Amino acid sequence: MAPKLASARRPGTTDRDWAAFQERFDAEFPRLESLFRRIYGPDGDAELRQLVLDAAASWQARPADLKALDADRAANPDWFQSNGMLGGVCYVDLYAGDLSGLRDRIPYFRELGLTYLHLMPLFRAPEENSDGGYAVSSYRDVNPALGTMAELAAVARELRENGIALVVDFIFNHTSNEHEWARKAVAGEPGFEDFYLIFPDRTMPDAYEETVREIFPDDHPGSFIQLDDGRWIWATFHSFQWDLNYRNPRVFRAMAGEMLYLANQGVDIVRMDAVAFIWKQLGTPCESLPEAHLLLQAFNAVCRLAAPSLLFKSEAIVHPDEVVQYISPGECQLSYNPLQMALIWNTLATREVNLLAQALERRHHIPDGTAWVNYVRSHDDIGWTFSDEDAAEFGINGHDHRSFLNAFFVNRFPGSFARGVPFQDNPRTGDCRVSGTTASLAGLEAGDGSAVARILLAHSIVLSTGGIPLLYLGDEVGQLNDYAYRQDPAKAEDSRWVGRPEYPAERYAERTDPATDAGKIFAGLTHLIDVRRRTPEFAGGRLVPFHTHNPHVLAYQRPGTSDGGESTILVLANFGDTAQHLEAATLGGMPDTAEDLIGGGRVPLRDGLTLEPHGLRWLRV
């Protein structure tokens, strides 16, 4: 069934470039064909043939410097697992005004040590109904307020020259209702009428909704909204975000074309948004179905043909057992680690490390050739994604504990230091999530004297557990909640905007002043980043549990090599509000002294070790 490749060769393509494509075709096409047949059967054969020809055209149009990058990363496939990796994420408009302003921030990114920059959705979207850019009207046009696609490609090139990989969101499950495909589908234009899931009446929507959960009940009930002509269209999230119909192989081919186009603009990594929802099957929850994984694997195979260095990052805020199912070299090489994020906050609230230690022991390991993206908080809300079964082992009722965490982090619990804002507070179901900046959630807004220490403690975990640590830019100088969103009608009902402040210029100006909170946070965090960069044991993701026999002290080991020999970093983190002592017997397998990577010098271990409140140690033993 293989297409006749010779017909796709362009006159200007060199023998070397064409041979490279043919070699990858021979390696990848059998996998792609098998996946396509499993998803679409023989009905997809025609689209598959054209898909490969599209990939050949995209490869031949790929800029020479990106082809060189493909070759370099093929020779260094573990580049993203380096202990020198550091990620940052921001909204272009909020952080820099536009793409031109973002280029002016590159010297600061180098100062901070970034090697990975995730720009939040920046493609054309409706001015009012954009969902923060996640309602995409065109994957090939940048929001005019931010710049142009040519400017984005120039930014990507300049970032690359400074050792920084560019990451963008690929809104995978849906488009805006203003997308050209959506307009043509509603109009019944041939070739587009089944790009979305449109039904003439409520018969099928009612059948689907018997097993599909409601995501945004405040926006609309169920998973469907009614069109002006009376028909019903699938809209899992907001009413203006219409789900694509991946049962149609033309949709697959169209989205693959958009992805390859972005890769050729210099995008290094695509965050695959809402991957759990992409396949619909009557009688199921329509989340994390087997076909969702097959689709991701097929997209991966297409990119190996035409943009072989492009990586996928999974965004699946689902049960921990389901999150890991998306992670593999042939599916998503990177994945957010929402469980670790949630449990860092849980541990700060409870001062007990049991759930986080359990997660690191049981749920940290992922396949070789993959990496977690670890973060303290994102642009989004915090959902308490731990497993009820895991919690029950400690006598914790999952529902009750989530209620406690929600109350604690929105300052509805006595003694709370947190100043978060509830998101999607649903009195009917008791469901709620939490929005806010790291500093406000950790107590800085409340004037809590331990806030700076908590901020550094939280970041020390994402910096030392392996994978790519990701900072929400501005948090490194302690930016606080921004309540001005309440005055904007387009944002007032979405409390997630409280955690998306504009560039905190005053705090950045204070980052070198050790007398300020911004200076203390920045100095402490950049010191940890520098230590990590100089510690080869922190490369990769291997982690070995270490039990402290103290409910407040988290520990784990990062084995590796240093100066050509085997060595191990013992990480210790005290989440307690008081000093905690580890007995000599607990450290009995350790040498008498250890190198203190953070504080310098050597630390005696023979008589045990005392950690100050919220204290941490990275010890080479």
Write up what this structure looks like.
- With 621 residues, the chain is an alpha/beta fold.
- A hairpin with a 5-residue loop joins strand 22 (593-596) and strand 23 (602-604).
- Helix 2 (45-61) packs parallel to helix 11.
Tally of alpha and pi helices: 20
**pLDDT below 50 for ≥5 consecutive residues: which ranges?**
none
Radius of gyration based on Cα positions: 25 Å
Q: Please give the largest β-sheet.
A: 8 strands, parallel, barrel
Percent of residues in beta strands?
15-25%
Shape: globular
Quick one: how many beta strands?
25
Broad structural category: alpha/beta
Give the end-to-end Cα distance, rounded to a whole number of Å: 58 Å
Task: Estimate the mean pLDDT confidence.
Answer: 95
Helix content: 25-40%
Query: What does the oligomeric state look like here?
Result: single chain
Which strand order do you get reading across the main beta sheet?
1-2-5-11-12-13-14-17
Sequence-ordered SSE layout with sheet pairings:
Elements: H1 15-40, H2 45-61, H3 64-75, E1 87-90, H4 92-96, H5 99-104, H6 106-112, E2 116-119, E3 123-124, E4 138-142, H7 149-161, E5 165-171, E6 174-176, H8 180-186, E7 198-199, H9 203-209, E8 224-226, E9 232-234, E10 241-243, H10 249-264, E11 269-273, H11 290-306, E12 311-314, H12 320-323, E13 334-336, H13 338-350, H14 354-362, E14 371-375, H15 388-392, H16 398-409, E15 421-426, E16 431-435, H17 438-442, H18 451-464, E17 468-472, H19 505-509, H20 517-533, E18 544-545, E19 553-562, E20 565-574, E21 580-582, E22 593-596, E23 602-604, E24 609-611, E25 616-620
Parallel strand pairs: 1-2, 1-17, 2-5, 5-11, 11-12, 12-13, 13-14, 14-17
Antiparallel strand pairs: 3-4, 6-10, 7-9, 8-9, 15-16, 18-19, 19-20, 20-25, 21-24, 22-23, 22-25
